[in-house]
Every structure is written in structure tokens, then in C-alpha cells.
């Protein structure tokens, strides 16, 4: 069970050191400004499950490490488990003091964390908890709450549509991602009582391997064929939502069937503005990156913090010290919040056919 909940505050990020700014070397996120400095390695999972890893996390982490004046190396395994382990080996050999990982699956993540621990390298699970792993800290969002917001969002959108006794399809995240399990725990906590009462009907329900959007479209095509009467789609993130929307559009039902999402991607927000997606869940990635960078810098300096919360790892049967941040539900009427926060810009969002919907939504 989680014990306590720590929300991001300016004070958390303010503990970052703000001295020298590291230079960026050609072709990598590697900082170096002379002298022996702590070095932090970060392994991102891929570019396919969500665009956030490259467009947001890499950028925010690099900025935080530069501000702290530490050396750093940020690499992306691009969904390749062998590459993930090879990158980790190279980072450990290069002398990183701290290794921050977003695992591809718990098995691969555990192997990397255990090797780092054996070499005296401090470790942090970033965004995804490695079940059975040995990370000293976990930094993420309250992922059960993410799912709860998705479930509540779908209920709201169906009610707004005046839909009675809807058939709901669930397009879940990767079965190897513990976060996907937590998301499902959250939205099923909202939807299961409605299924049990007969108010809703549970339709097709399937997980998407590796969060692959192309596979998601094929899976949802099959779902729609089996239940063309479906009236709502619980899609676990914006990429999966877009895959479902493509199928609905082909069948002239986009905008009629509410679809949820997650990550507040440009594409997801544009789908919301167009009326094809009913909501997404915004996770302020900068706060997550800043919190992880703060802990990494402290660990590299030999300090240990108590973040004030824990998350239970049922496989390893241990409570992992955790920083858990609060997610936010985004509908058409508060897309501006994501723009105001700087996560996306008006220029990115309000292009071409989306200019008019942006104006109507009051995007500034």
C-alpha cells in the first residue's frame, strides 16, 4: 500500500544545485565542464509507447542536470531489451554514480538494477516501478489515480452525451508494464460497479503489447467488429486513443463515441479540441523530471532523503521510498491549463485545421 502522498512543490526542485552549467557534447546528452563531478546515467525506454520520453523527459532531465552542474548521460533503448542492458553496462563501466531507469519490463529492469547495486551504483526507478527490483527510490505519478481520473472522465463524457446503458471497450496498456496494471486498477475501480449494476455493459477488453499503436489499431478494429454497438472507449493513453479514433473515423463514429487518453500529447489535445477524444490525463513531466534529478544529485553526493511516501512492491515484498505526483484530468474546457504550464505551446497545438477549435476553446 502507498503510505502518504508527496506532491511536487517548488521547494523540491529548489534543492537542485544551481552552480556551473554543463556543456552538451555532440550527438549525446553528456555534460562535461572539467574536473571530477558526479555523473548520472538515465535510460529511457523507447519513442513508441509515448512521444513524451523524447519531447519532454529528455529535455527536462537534461536541463535539471545542467542546472545542478553534474555530468550526465541520457540514452534511449528504443524498445530493445538487449540494448537496454548494453547501455546500462556501458554507463556502469563509464563510472556513473547514479543510474535512473524507465524499465521496458520488470525482468530486464531487475537485471540492470541488480548489476548496478553490485557495482555500488545508486539507482532510481523513474515513472515505472520495477517489480522485484532493488531501486533505492521510485519517482512517478499516482498511477492508480491516473486510472481513476480516466474512469471518471469516461463516465462524465457518457453522461454529457446522454448515453444510456453503454457498451464500453477497454484498450489497456502493455501487460508487462506495472503502470498499466495500476491504471487499470484505477479505472476498473470506477467502472466495475457500473458493470455489476447493469448500468454499463463491459465490452471487449484487451491489453496492447508494448503500447504499440499499430497493434492497438488492429486490436480495436477487431473489438469494433465484434461490438459495433460500443458507446465508449477506455483507452489507456493518447496513442492508443488515436488508434481507436482512426477506426471510429473509418466507421463514421468519431466524435460520437467518447474516448479517454493519457499524457496530454499534442495529438491527444488536438483530438480533444476536434471533439474526437473526450479527455486525457495530464502529468506534469517537468515536476517528475525535477524530482528525479533532485534525488539523483543528492544520491551522487552521498545524501539520502526521505521523500515521505512509499509504494509497495508485491513481488519483492518491500516498500520503496517514493515521490508520487498528482495527475490532472483535461477536457476541452481546460486544455489551456496544459498550455499555460508550458508543456505544449499554442504554436504546436493550434496549427492548420486546429486553429479554429483552439480559438473556440480560448487557447492563448
What does this structure look like?
The protein is α/β, with parallel strands linked by helices. The chain folds into two domains: 10-135 and 284-325, Response regulator (Rossmann fold, 3-Layer(aba) Sandwich), CATH 3.40.50; 143-282 and 331-361, Response regulator (Rossmann fold). The protein is built from 13 helices and 14 strands. The chain has helices spanning 10-14, 52-68, 81-94, 106-118, 143-161, 178-197, 213-226, 238-250, 266-274, 285-300, 336-340, 346-349, 355-361; strands spanning 23-24, 29-32, 39-44, 71-76, 98-101, 122-126, 137-141, 167-172, 201-207, 232-235, 280-282, 310-313, 318-325, 328-330. A nine-stranded mixed β-sheet has the order 1-2-4-3-5-6-7-13-12, with helices on both faces. The protein has a three-stranded parallel β-sheet with strand order 9-8-10, sandwiched between helices. Strand 12 (310-313) and strand 13 (318-325) form a beta hairpin. Helix 3 (81-94) runs parallel beside helix 4 (106-118) and helix 5 (143-161) packs parallel to helix 6. The longest helix is centred in the middle third of the chain and has 20 residues, at 178-197. The model is unreliable at 1-28 and 30-34 (pLDDT under 50).
Label this structure with key terms:
single chain, Rossmann fold, 2 domains, globular, carbohydrate binding, Bact_Solute-Bind_Prot2, SBP_2_dom
Number of strands: 14
Helix content: 40-55%
Rounded Rg: 21 Å
Structural class assignment: alpha/beta
Biggest sheet details:
9 strands, mixed
Return the CATH architecture of the largest domain.
3-Layer(aba) Sandwich
Strand content: 15-25%
**Looking at the structure, what is the overall shape?**
globular
* CATH H-tier superfamily of the largest domain: Response regulator
The helix tally amounts to 13
How would you write the strand order of the largest sheet? 1-2-4-3-5-6-7-13-12
Class of the largest domain in CATH?
Alpha Beta
The CATH topology of the largest domain comes to: Rossmann fold
Q: What's the overall average pLDDT, rounded?
A: 91
Could you say how many structural domains there are in total? 2
| Through-space gap between termini | 41 Å
Note the run of SSEs as H and E.
HEEEHEHEHEEHEHEHEHHEHEEEHHH
Regions with little confidence, pLDDT below 50 for 5+ residues: 1-28, 30-34
Keywords: Signal
Pfam families: Peripla_BP_4
InterPro entries: Bact_Solute-Bind_Prot2, Peripla_BP_I, SBP_2_dom
Protein name: Sugar ABC transporter substrate-binding protein
Amino acid at each position: 500500500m502507498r503510505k502518504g502522498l508527496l506532491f511536487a512543490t517548488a521547494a523540491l526542485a529548489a534543492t537542485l544545485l544551481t552552480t556551473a552549467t554543463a556543456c552538451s557534447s555532440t550527438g549525446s546528452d553528456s555534460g562535461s565542464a572539467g574536473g571530477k563531478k558526479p555523473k548520472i546515467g538515465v535510460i529511457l525506454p523507447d519513442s513508441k509507447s509515448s512521444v513524451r520520453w523524447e519531447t519532454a523527459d529528455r529535455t527536462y532531465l537534461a536541463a535539471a542536470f545542467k542546472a545542478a552542474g553534474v555530468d550526465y548521460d541520457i540514452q534511449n533503448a528504443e524498445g530493445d531489451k538487449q540494448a537496454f542492458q548494453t547501455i546500462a553496462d556501458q554507463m556502469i563501466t563509464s563510472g556513473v554514480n547514479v543510474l535512473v531507469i524507465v524499465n521496458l519490463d520488470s525482468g530486464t529492469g531487475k537485471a540492470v538494477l541488480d548489476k548496478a547495486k553490485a557495482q555500488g551504483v545508486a539507482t532510481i526507478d523513474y515513472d515505472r516501478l520495477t517489480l522485484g527490483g532493488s531501486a533505492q527510490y521510485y519517482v512517478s505519478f499516482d498511477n492508480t489515480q491516473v486510472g481513476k481520473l480516466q474512469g471518471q472522465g469516461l463516465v462524465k463524457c457518457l453522461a454529457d452525451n446522454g448515453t444510456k446503458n453503454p457498451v464500453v471497450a477497454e484498450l489497456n496498456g502493455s501487460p508487462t508494464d506495472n503502470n498499466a496494471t495500476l491504471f487499470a486498477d484505477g479505472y476498473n475501480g470506477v467502472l466495475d460497479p457500473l458493470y455489476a449494476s447493469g448500468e454499463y455493459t463491459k465490452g471487449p477488453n484487451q491489453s496492447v503489447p508494448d503500447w504499440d499503436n499499430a497493434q492497438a489499431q488492429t486490436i480495436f478494429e477487431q473489438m469494433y467488429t465484434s461490438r459495433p454497438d460500443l458507446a465508449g472507449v477506455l483507452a489507456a493513453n493518447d496513442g492508443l486513443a488515436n488508434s481507436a479514433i482512426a477506426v471510429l473515423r473509418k466507421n463514421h463514429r468519431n466524435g460520437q463515441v467518447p474516448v479517454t487518453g493519457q499524457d496530454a500529447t499534442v495529438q491527444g489535445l488536438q483530438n480533444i479540441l476536434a471533439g474526437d477524444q473526450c479527455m486525457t490525463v495530464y502529468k506534469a513531466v517537468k515536476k517528475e523530471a525535477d524530482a528525479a534529478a533532485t534525488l539523483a544529485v543528492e544520491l551522487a553526493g552521498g545524501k539520502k532523503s526521505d521523500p515521505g511516501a512509499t509504494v509497495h512492491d508485491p513481488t519483492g515484498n518491500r516498500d520503496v521510498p517514493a515521490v508520487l505526483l498528482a495527475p490532472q484530468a483535461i477536457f476541452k474546457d481546460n486544455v489551456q491549463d496544459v498550455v499555460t504550464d508550458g508543456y505544449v505551446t499554442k504554436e504546436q497545438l493550434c496549427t492548420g485545421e486546429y486553429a479554429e477549435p483552439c480559438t473556440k476553446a480560448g487557447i492563448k
